[in-house]
Amino acid sequence: MPRFDGKEFMRRYRGKKIMYIGDSLSLNNFESLLCLLHSSLPKSKSKFKQHINKQTVSVTFQCMELKILFHQITCRH
């Protein structure tokens, strides 16, 4: 399996939005992707926003206009 290339990933998804929807396992995957991308472009500016409902978080890598969002689903029994 080839090594992950964060710069290439951001180039491919430039100007796009990626959304994770799920539970804590999806949150872990979301956070891991953010760490991988940040480490590939450590000096790039990013903007973090937690939305009003506090279930949705977005991070925008401004240099690539790439927005990654996470929306947490809560189960009610």
UniProtKB/TrEMBL annotation:
Residues 1-71 form the Trichome birefringence-like C-terminal domain. It comes from Datura stramonium. Belongs to the PC-esterase family. TBL subfamily. It holds the Pfam family PC-Esterase. This is Protein trichome birefringence-like 40. InterPro entries: TBL, TBL_C.
